[in-house]
Predict the structure.
Amino acid sequence: MGVQLKGNGHGEAPMNPTIAVPLFVVGGLLAILFAWKSAIRLRHRQRSKEARTGIDQTQLSRTNSFNAALKKHFLYAPLWGNRHSREFRFLRLHMGSLPLRLEVICLLAYLGLNIIFIIVTVDWWISDYSKKMFQLKYSAGHLAVMNTPGLVLSAGRNNPLIQLLGISFDSFNYMHRWVGRVIAANAVIHMSAVLANQAYMHGTEYVLYIIWQQRLYICGLVAILGFLFIVVQSLSPVRHSFYELFLHLHIALAVMSFVALWYHLQNLLQQQVLLGTLILWGLDRAGRLGILLWRNIGRQPTTATIEALPGSVARVDVAVSRAWRFRPGQYMYLYMPCLGLWTSHPFTVAWTSTGSDSLNLGEKRSSSDSLKALIGGSETTTMSVLIKGQDGFTKRLLQKAEESAEGRIKALALAEGPFGGIHSLNSYGTLLLIAGGIGITHPMSYLNEVVGTFAEQKTATRKVHLVWIVRSLDHLTWIQTFMEEILGHDSLSSPINQNGHSYFQFPKLLLSISLHITAHKDTVEEYIPTPSTPWTQSAPPSVPVSIHHGKPCIQSVLEKEKAEQIGAMAVSVCGPGGLGDSVREAVRNVQGEKTVDLGLLAQFAFADIVNMKYTLQTCIFTHQTNPALTACNSSCNPLEKNLNTLWEKGGGKWQPQYQYCKTDDASLVQYQGGCASCLEKQDNTKVLGLGGMGAACDSKPNATKDETVSLSQSLFTLTSTSPSSFPSSSPSATSSSKLSSGAKIGIGVGVGVGVAALGVMAGIVWFCMRRRRAQTQSESYMDSPDTQSYGGLGTQQSYAEGPKSSAVDSEQTYVPELSTTEHKEQPPAELSGKQVVAELPI
């Protein structure tokens, strides 16, 4: 079969270079992917540079139909339907989740390469059964060994390909598991061919003899059993049910299997490939240990302050010995010796600060900072994470804080990182940050960066909308200190000018916050802001904070943001799997579409009345930014008492939700028409929701039952329209079980690409097999080894065989990422879902 690499002079078989072709093909695909990702980075950098010069960002939001279709039906699309992040469960066991179509195509290509090259390198037409089995065990064993470098590289925390290719650790971990399964399958084929040949030549009794008596066979069997056990214990139900046990057992089995394989390949050239694999693994482990010691050993040890918060959540402030530099979306691994010396878990960093001030946005460093960091000076980096108490490590951590007298403890810790953070959002004019529960840690890091870089004029972001879905109002205290710093930043209050001109067409950052309380036991009065959640009331007038009851309609939120977006738009989600799937579906639905007009029919609940009231009160009475409003003072002033009623206290209690309807002898209905008519006649003014508030006074929708009132016209009309006779409940959107035409097209394209790839591979097989037959006719095949003396495998007179293992080091599960980035593997402690980042240029 063409050129053969020579043996080492001791009689072992030469190593066939054809076996390495799959490795070279994968390397070529990675090179193409690197070029593609580099082009995307250059485009984002150019877009950010142009935006910082003050160019109209409308020019930067354009896309083409091909890119939109590619994202909708291929890059962002799950394999089937809309389910990707939400895992399948059977009897409460985690059974895994569906991959993306792109991941399936890559996986099928990888599996196809391995299958094809096993077929190609075996002469299936040869009549000699012993030679045929020899070729099969030779191909399967060599191919298993050639896959081991990718196995180790894809499992490493310090994998350089993560940053070079912009692929998340979750995607590499997904491929790591499949590479391990392929290696284990090749090892089983290798062993089966060897034993079948021995049984054919010498009988089954001889097979039992060599398995228990010869070191070559003993080591090979130990390696294969170790790899197979790794495959079984790394299955999703076992891995998620017993994570810490899985982690330690996984590493122990990998070490055992590699040692056994090393002795199995003694004096064979394939041992050099295994040596390269072990060097990669050793470099990753040594690098992790070195970084861990460097980060945490200085003049002062790394410490963690753990504070118990409502909702079984702990805030952990980790003060490391040396200064770190974090990017938004990055995570770290936290070790707590008091809870377990060999246990570490990943947590997304919600907030970072340097120096004595634990919360200091946009702080600039002096030139001596690097020297201080080098010698371990007094300057430290404090990283804040939020940890949801679940099982194991996180449960013990929360219990220690709750059992203390002050609800807070301080302990020694070790921090390893940072990792992740492969998605930069600085080139996007509009950000939609969506979080569910403890997933708020991820968008907080981006908010921290945006307000700082906006003031320094280093970002294209002009508009940010934060949507947080949380169970109870008490949970808003999780981010109390963070939000106080953000809402008090100059970027949200003072205009930022560049050379005397408005920076980026907008002098201030446009930030809006929507909070959604999902606990059904909460009443309307409970989810109106109270002194227990002061940050919701400390926002400046330019930052609207709205509180709603129930879950949001993600599709409506996204369409609204798309209609008002500035420049290119990015959507990031971190939360439960169901939330991630809803956001992914909504992003796919708006790809390449025009803005949807929602003005013909309006439905709203009481939370929307709060928003309308706030807008009217602010624009008409509190902050009259438009001089034209002065002309309508006489017409609109009678409404001031009505609009101020909703949030005022009476007798120490909040006023009933529809008290504004009765205030001042029900003057709202009497004067709203005149105020709206006057405002309509003025230049550059809009009539905001007066008709809707009047209609709500008649029907009074019940917010606790998610009732709404329907209008036959827009909310922005002059007079109120007749509401429906009875409040109607808004049905929740249900997904159809049928696939859309676009989804069918996407699946068809994916299948077509796969069929084409398999066709090309089949052509290669046909060509190689024809060449193989011609070669065997012209020259005799190489002699098989002395099976009598060496059992068909040989220590010095046999061809190499290399059973390999499944995963080596999959200590990590998720951090977060619609890049769509979403996390297939949920971290054992921190997140209930994954991060998704999606680009939404119109």
Observations:
- Residues 658 and 700 are 7 Å apart (CA to CA).
- The mean pLDDT is 71.
- Residues 741-778 form the longest helix (38 residues).
